[in-house]
């Protein structure tokens, strides 16, 4: 699975908004500076997130962006889907829409299993979990596997 720069920036921007929830709206420039995200790119991402119902924008001198819902109710998967589309696709196609024949027939259940696991993790972690450094125990346990931090 590949997490695009767009998705990474979107999650980081959403986390910045979650962390400063009580401080009022944040300007895009402040989010960009805090997370080292190119400002113009961030503006596009924030617009997608606004259209997707994850953030609200407010104009004016005290304007900026804020989360549209509590951070506890926005999953990491919600953010990624809003800016990048489906979590798992094969050649740009969602796994259930694929078909294989012969020795490749078993690929479809493999892709479905992969999608299921990705969903379980990304839908099970909220912005609040990450912003508070309180990842669910099932996710934290995965990071303790001996090969988790090793690139094959």
UniProtKB/TrEMBL annotation:
Signal peptide: none annotated. InterPro entries: Tscrpt_reg_Rrf2, WH-like_DNA-bd_sf, WH_DNA-bd_sf. Coiled coil: none annotated. The keyword DNA-binding applies. Keywords: DNA-binding. It holds the Pfam family Rrf2. It comes from the Bacteria. This is Transcriptional regulator. It comes from Streptomyces pharetrae CZA14. The lineage of its organism: Bacteria, Bacillati, Actinomycetota, Actinomycetes, Kitasatosporales.
